[in-house]
């Protein structure tokens, strides 16, 4: 076992892990931050997306020890300080951007990473950016709408495909 | 996945020493290696992470104008930092996997793995790049030796990849949407002394140069120059995503598109 230390949602944390412990396992099983979902465990579905030093990564495909010393952000750190939903989360609620909700943590974390670099993405840019986030309910249309709204754009103009 | 020791050296010398241990394995971004370990297709005694070595990071322009990319540089960084110095290569990097995968996956990892459908082997072979390791320099023509096989020796580390910048280049990727690898990808580079065409995703022998197309395009650089050329489907990959004949056909189509994109 090796000690790993990192900042998660602004709090310093540490724990003893094996070499093979994944970042997703460390977050879920050691820190009980189960908002990060493990959907496929093969780095395809994106439900486990978190931020490592501000960049979106699939936490099921990164070793916990690789994140030693990093600043990690998860879905649990997304809400406003008073506990209310942040702009992205609120937009997902307002525009029915979730059906079963399983993919939602990854969708929200990917959206946050997208809007950091591109505050007003086009519909095409949003769809392109979400290539690594799968929604098995196939609820993409309203997810895209939610992201348009979260970036302060008119979401009503998106036609159903 | 079986357990292993984890090491994260901060210098190339320490990484080489750590890789000297029996069954030690270098770890780039892990975007292929970690899924491989999960399937228990490999059982290294230790993983030596290359992500903590500063000199393996980043994109720089050499005195001779070539673009040198550190072995542990992520696809996202190449897509961003090489955009002005070598746009076609930056565009290739920006099409690998998805955004989260590009934030972790590295050029050295991709080239060392030499997946027969990966994008970077086509970019390196098509550009006539030089693969620089801790021991030597290897030309791309000698480096890629068939599916998942390269000239790398045990424990040898790719420190950088040096790309001569062509007059014009284009990567045309026909996406296999489930894996996000190339069903067929063609990297075409036009230099003052000739044209290089490298094909990924198509052959059972991994990335290869399509020499007939190179000769035809060097003689006459226009899409019609490819009209009478055909790839023999015999050695093509045939699977549920596309037959041998389909992939052979796609090689021609994607090469033509690459010519059109550089005109």
UniProtKB/TrEMBL annotation, chain A:
Transmembrane domains' residue ranges: none
InterPro entries the UniProt entry points to: 2Fe-2S-bd (IPR002888), 2Fe-2S-bd_dom_sf (IPR036884), 2Fe-2S_ferredoxin-like_sf (IPR036010), 2Fe-2S_ferredoxin-type (IPR001041), 2Fe2S_fd_BS (IPR006058), Beta-grasp_dom_sf (IPR012675), Diverse_Oxidoreductases (IPR051452)
Keywords, ordered alphabetically: 2Fe-2S, Iron, Iron-sulfur, Metal-binding, Oxidoreductase
Domain 2Fe-2S ferredoxin-type span(s) in chain numbering: 2-78
Pfam family, one: Fer2_2
Species whose genome carries this gene: Ruegeria haliotis
Protein name, UniProt field: (2Fe-2S)-binding protein
SUPFAM superfamilies: 2Fe-2S ferredoxin-like (SSF54292), CO dehydrogenase ISP C-domain like (SSF47741)
UniProtKB/TrEMBL annotation, chain B:
Keywords from the named record: FAD, Flavoprotein, Oxidoreductase
Pfam families for the chain: FAD_binding_5
Residues annotated as domain FAD-binding PCMH-type: 1-168
InterPro entries per UniProt: CO_DH_flav_C, CO_DH_flav_C_dom_sf, Diverse_Substr_Oxidored, FAD-bd_PCMH, FAD-bd_PCMH-like_sf, FAD-bd_PCMH_sub1, FAD-bd_PCMH_sub2, Mopterin_DH_FAD-bd
Highest taxon, organism lineage: Bacteria
PANTHER family: XANTHINE DEHYDROGENASE SUBUNIT C-RELATED
Record protein name field: Xanthine dehydrogenase family protein subunit M
Organism: Ruegeria haliotis
